[in-house]
Amino acid sequence: MKDYREFILKESYAGAEIDYAPIRDTWFVLSGTRDGTIFYERVTFTCGGRLINSWAILYPAAERQLYNRVVEQVARSYRAGQSNCG
């Protein structure tokens, strides 16, 4: 998980200012700002770490108030799938 997190930081968010980045046993979040764009990406490992489920939202920093509510709702309701672990 740590290697994948570093890969995402380097490949997708190089030079970004990270302001929220919790790490748990099976998931992590990267959130911050780069070039006037805010991003929130959640990555969850399922099936004992064999599958990666992720989603990201990017939006203009000028519209932070509007989109932060959307991100909060999606983050609260998101559940990673487990059905294809076979």
What does it look like?
The structure is a single chain. Strands 1-2-3-4 form a four-stranded antiparallel sheet, with helices on one face. Strand 1 and strand 2 form a beta hairpin. The protein is α+β, with helices and mostly antiparallel strands and 86 residues long. The chain has one domain: Double Stranded RNA Binding Domain (2-Layer Sandwich), CATH 3.30.160. The two termini are 21 Å apart. It is 29% helix and 37% strand. The longest helix has 14 residues. The chain is built from two helices and four strands. The mean pLDDT is 93.
Question: Quick recap of the structure?
Answer:
The protein is of the alpha+beta class and 86 residues long. It has helices at 2-12, 64-77; strands at 17-20, 27-34, 37-46, 51-60.
Topology:
Layout (H helix, E strand, L loop, with lengths): L1 H11 L4 E4 L6 E8 L2 E10 L4 E10 L3 H14 L9
